[in-house]
Each structure stands twice: as structure tokens, then as C-alpha cells.
Design goal:
Strand 1 and strand 2 form a beta hairpin. This protein starts with 10 loop residues before the first helix and ends with a helix. Helix 2 crosses helix 3. It has 141 residues and is of the alpha+beta class. 30% of the residues lie in helices and 15% in strands. The protein has one domain: 2-Layer Sandwich (HIT family, subunit A). It binds guanosine-5'-monophosphate. Guanosine-5'-monophosphate binds next to strand 2. Keywords: Hydrolase. This is HIT family hydrolase. Pfam families: HIT. It comes from Faucicola atlantae.
Amino acid sequence: MTQPTYDNDNIFAKILRGDIPNFTVYEDDKTLAFMDIMPMAHGHVLVIPKCQAVELSDMPAEYLQAVFVTAQKVMQAQRHVLNRDGIVQMQLNHAQAGQSVPHYHVHLIPTSIHALGQHAERKADTDGLAELAKQLKAAII
Ligand code: 5GP
């Protein structure tokens, strides 16, 4: 296996550069959390590091820690806003595993493993995503 090379033109790199808009839930110096535009469930959020990493194998430890600290904040907000306990935490490594965006990201999906269906299939309503991002942002502590 060779180490994956980072493509600066991937969609999440563009989001980090501000070239493409997103519905931000939380941001700090090392991470960004935002709504998935093709959610697998209502309230699906992605957490990404602000470093060049394709998958788990090339994530610097300090960014891994930062991503999971942010994921904890987001999950707490999802539970509060969506009034449910079950959140699927998912992260795909390599296209062979179904990874479609080659920038490391953790999915936080308010659903059950038994209800997970098609991946990245259908765009959600933009106004709905904006409203949910606002509610989650306000619930971050
Ligand atoms: P992966 O298959 O790489 O684990 O997941 C990539 C995720 O990124 C998918 O859930 C997909 O819906 C989401 N996604 C793809 N393009 C965009 C985009 O332009 N904006 C946002 N917010 N999410 C995206």
C-alpha cells in the first residue's frame, strides 16, 4: 500500500478555502463541522480537520484529537436539538471502502446502523440545512 496523495482540489479543501459555501455548525483553529448536503439522515454533520489528510493513516495525532473533541461537541448538540440518543459515527478510508471525498472526515449521523441506506445520493433542501445548522450552532457548548 502507498500513502495516499492529497488532492488540493477536493471539495472539502475548497470548502476550507472558502471557495464553496457550507452550513457551518462549529469551527476552531484545527477543525470545521458542517451539514452534509446529501444527508443519510436528518441532522447529518461532517467534521473535518484543517490539514491535508486523505484518511486515518495520514492524520497527525493533534488533528485526530481536535476532530474528536469537535465531534463530541457536535454530537451533544445533535442530541439536544434532535432529541435522540442514537448517533452513528462513521469514517471511510479509501475509495475501495466507499470514500467519495479524499479529505479525512468523520460522519455524525443521527440514525441507526439498521436504517443506513444509500450514501451521498440526494441533495437536501437548502433552507432546511441552513435552519438546522443554526440550531446546532446555538446548541454547541
Ligand atoms: P464519504 O463518501 O467520502 O465518506 O463522504 C463524503 C460526504 O460528503 C457524503 O456524505 C456527501 O454527501 C458529502 N458531500 C459531498 N459533496 C459535498 C459538498 O459539496 N458539501 C457538503 N456539505 N457535503 C458534501
